[in-house]
Specification:
With 400 residues, the protein is α/β, with parallel strands linked by helices. Helices cover 40% and strands 12% of the residues. The longest helix is centred in the last third of the chain and has 21 residues.
Length: 400
């Protein structure tokens, strides 16, 4: 009899976290590696958020809370959804969890059974298919390449839906591509979903506040109100507020689903950290002007990385509308040989080459379900990005 469960055997460790661990190990050995693998803002948590956490500690807010969030935080989330998205929720429709990944995990584990299908556009965030498979469900991948802006089309969605489809996962702006759906694009997808009333929608809006230029964020329950009753709108504090380590994710959705998620959470983590919840209240209710300042810095970095990578023969790097990633196509580099005579046969081997020869860590497109490509996180300094792209340029120029 095996000690390890069949459910656990259906999943793999996160490849993004694995590359981050490799980077940290090399740095610990004194090797000069530039890490572009981690999806984490390099900005600090705002001081007013940290001050709220300190005040909560001093006020003794260090005890258990309601299993899926304090009344204060749920009220702040209700206000956020109304202010930012025009969505009306009650506190009973709000779930607070230990990070956005936990929100997704709770929702899928609470609803997906063996035989259920979950539509996952590719490229996708690495955890989506693994969580579905952990539940015994089947991820149904739809390739949405650079030629279509890394976005799912209504025709593709319609063709993928079957009687077994339980969810569509829709991430905008996207990790790993930064692609983002306009309101009109969401409406077109919504028209398809309205013809299939058994399909639920999981809107992963974690990068909502990180967008550029004329792009205006929208979420599907906002632009297609008829889908409100079967949409879980997921968000959190990690990216916009630079609170990755605080672990606060949240969602708004129908009461039966929210209650099911709370039931599951009551037997797993119980409540999110009480202090982190107090900090999240401050983040959501406090001044938001710093978001534009940080986005301006991200925009400069995005343009730098896109320009330098597009200067490399064999790399095509689309310009994303949001998040802090680029996802360049590297078809033109596959099949070339390294100075040591090794043929680059895949994006995994290209990433290993970058790490070994250029001392730059990124994540291969294979991890995100669409190859050959790689993901670069530009949530680091201009100087580090310039040096990293210069190293990549030199490494690619050495290929034959």
């Amino acid at each position: 009899m095996s000690l390890i469960s069949a459910a656990l055997g259906r999943i793999s460790p996160s490849p993004t976290l694995a590359m981050t661990s490799r980077t940290l190990e090399l740095k610990a050995q004194g090797i000069d590696v530039i890490g572009l693998a981690a999806g984490e803002p390099d900005f600090d948590t705002p001081d007013f958020v940290k001050d709220a956490a300190i005040a909560a500690i001093r006020a003794g807010k260090t005890k258990y809370t309601n299993v899926d969030g304090t009344a204060e935080l749920k009220a702040a989330i209700v206000a956020k959804f109304k202010r930012d998205n025009g969505l009306d929720y009650t506190p009973g429709q709000i779930s607070v969890n230990v990070g956005g990944k936990h929100t997704l995990f709770n929702a899928l584990v609470a609803t997906v059974e063996a035989g259920d299908e979950v539509i996952v556009p590719a490229p996708y965030w690495v955890s989506y298919p693994d969580i579905v498979q952990y539940c015994g469900g089947t991820p149904v991948f739809i390739a949405a390449g650079a030629d279509q802006g890394y976005k799912l089309t209504p025709a593709q969605l319609d063709a993928a839906i079957t009687s077994r489809t339980k969810w569509l996962i829709l991430n905008s702006p996207s990790n790993p591509t930064g692609a983002a759906y306009s309101a009109d694009e969401l409406k077109a997808l919504g028209e398809v979903l309205l013809r299939h009333p058994h399909v639920w929608v999981m809107a992963d809006d974690m990068y909502e506040h990180i967008t550029y230029g004329d792009f205006r964020f929208a979420t599907i329950a906002q632009v297609v109100p008829a889908l409100y009753e079967r949409t879980l709108t997921v968000n959190g504090c990690s990216k916009a507020y630079a609170m990755t380590g605080w672990r606060i994710g949240f969602a708004g959705g129908p009461v039966p689903l929210i209650k099911a998620m709370a039931k599951l959470q009551s037997q797993s983590t119980s409540n999110p950290c009480s202090i982190a919840q107090a900090a999240a209240v401050a983040a959501l209710n406090g001044p938001q002007d710093f978001l534009a300042e940080r986005n301006a810095a991200f925009l400069t970095r995005r343009d730098l990385v896109v320009r330098m990578l597009n200067d490399v023969e064999g790399i095509h790097c689309p310009t994303p509308d949001g998040a802090f990633y680029v996802y360049p196509d590297v078809s033109g580099l596959i099949g070339k040989a390294t100075p040591a005579g090794k043929t680059i046969a895949s994006d995994d081997e290209l990433i290993d080459y970058f790490l070994d020869e250029a001392r730059v860590a990124a994540v291969a497109g294979n991890a995100f379900g669409l190859s050959p490509a790689f993901r670069v996180s530009y949530a680091t300094s201009d100087a580090a990005l310039t040096e990293a792209c210069t190293r990549i340029q030199a490494a690619c120029a050495a290929l034959r």
